[in-house]
Amino acid sequence: MMNGLGSTLPLYLIDASAWSHYGSRNPVTGFIDHISHRGVIMTCPPAALEYCFMARNKVEHDNYRMRMEKLLQPLVHPTVHDVLVIQSALWGSGLVCAAGASDTLIASYAMLNNATVISCDKDFGHIAAALDGALRQIRLVP
């Protein structure tokens, strides 16, 4: 299957919940390092904002920003319709509050760019369930 780059390399969109564990000695760091050698890691505006929001000072924010700016940027951006389809699926499956606006938008970017979301929380699993698996996601446990 081709990703948005016209390549057969898998494309991954890493959520802030996974980035927050990167760099320490845990399975998350190992997994992200592993996929970075076998695929392409991308970001999108809401994922980059969430990640950079976690910075505790200006220097850390600058480092986080540089990391995000080096990653592949999305080639396709969601429309209002795209994000509301996901939100409607959450409503329809009784998972109204299972994922917030940012995660819904990140999921939309992932789907439109043929990427797999990597996270450490359950929100993307709820979105995938509501969409009958249309969202590819991997939940890591730190």
UniProtKB/TrEMBL annotation:
It comes from the Bacteria. Gene3D superfamilies: 5'-nuclease. SUPFAM superfamilies: PIN domain-like (SSF88723). The keyword Metal-binding applies. The keyword Nuclease applies. Residues 12-128 form the PIN domain. Keywords: Hydrolase, Magnesium, Metal-binding, Nuclease. Pfam families: PIN. This is Nucleic acid-binding protein.
